[in-house]
Every structure is written in C-alpha cells, then in structure tokens.
Design goal:
Strand order of the largest sheet: 1-2
Helix content: over 70%
Structural class: mainly alpha
Shape: globular
Strand content: under 5%
Distance between the termini: 29 Å
Number of strands: 2
Mean pLDDT: 78
Length: 140
C-alpha cells in the first residue's frame, strides 16, 4: 500500500507540473480547443454514438455500441476508484489553476473521463483496425 501511495504522490507531482505548463500557455483559441476535446468525451456523446451505432447496425454500428459500453464501464470503475483515492482536483488548490469547465465532483484521480475515452478508443480501434486505433488513442 505504501508503494501505491508513493506512486500516486509522484504521479500527482508530474501531473501538477504538466497542468501548470499547459495552463500557463492558455489563449482564447487554445481554451476553445481544450473545451471541445473535453466535451467530445462526455457521456452524452457516448450515448449518441451508441444510439447511432444501434440504428446503423452492421459491424461498425456494433463497434460503436461496444465502444460506448466500454466507456460506461470504465467510467463507473473510475468513479469508484476516485472515491477510494480521494485526490482533490488541482484546480481546487490554486487560483492560478482555474478550470475552464465546472467539475462534476471534487476528486480527480483516476480520471473517469480519461478512462472512458481510452476504453472507447481501444474497443473501437480493435474493431475498426490499426489505422483507426492511433487517431482514436490520440483523441483519448
């Protein structure tokens, strides 16, 4: 358990440095890009992708439904782990780290949003092939 706690502290330090570096270079255009990328991984997008996939049918539609289901499962696991770790969001610790969007809760690690995006990307990439996997992982 101590090794895990030490790893989490180290990861938190690296995460804070990266966050500060990205936040330090903010511009209005960069903010719009980051908000768009964040919103592209919201639950309503996965619901829409699943509904569209179900309507389309075919192997691609099934992949869309499976990717959305994987995102939902990963988000649920992340939600439970997030409460166990209880790491406060960096934006709650410093005015210099103002968030661009309202947070869904007070905890930040592990990120359910990122877990969902990676799960969806992996499932969709596995179904659609290697050419799709790289851009999907870059998005995630």
């Amino acid at each position: 358990m101590q090794a895990l706690q030490a790893w989490i502290r180290t990861a938190a330090r690296h995460d804070a440095r990266l966050y500060d570096r990205v936040a330090g270079g903010r511009t209005a255009a960069w903010n719009r890009v980051m908000i768009g990328l964040t919103r592209s991984g919201d639950a309503r997008v996965y619901v829409g992708v699943a509904l569209l996939g179900a309507a389309v049918g075919s192997d691609v539609g099934a992949a869309a439904v499976a990717g959305s289901a994987a995102a939902c499962a990963a988000s649920a696991v992340g939600y439970v782990l997030k409460r166990a770790v209880a790491r406060p969001r960096p934006t709650l610790r410093s005015e210099a780290r103002a968030a661009l969007l309202r947070h869904p809760d007070a905890y930040s690690f592990p990120s359910s949003h990122t877990a969902a995006a990676v799960a969806a990307a992996l499932v969709l990439g596995a179904a659609l092939g290697p050419a799709a996997l790289a851009p999907l992982l870059a998005w995630a």
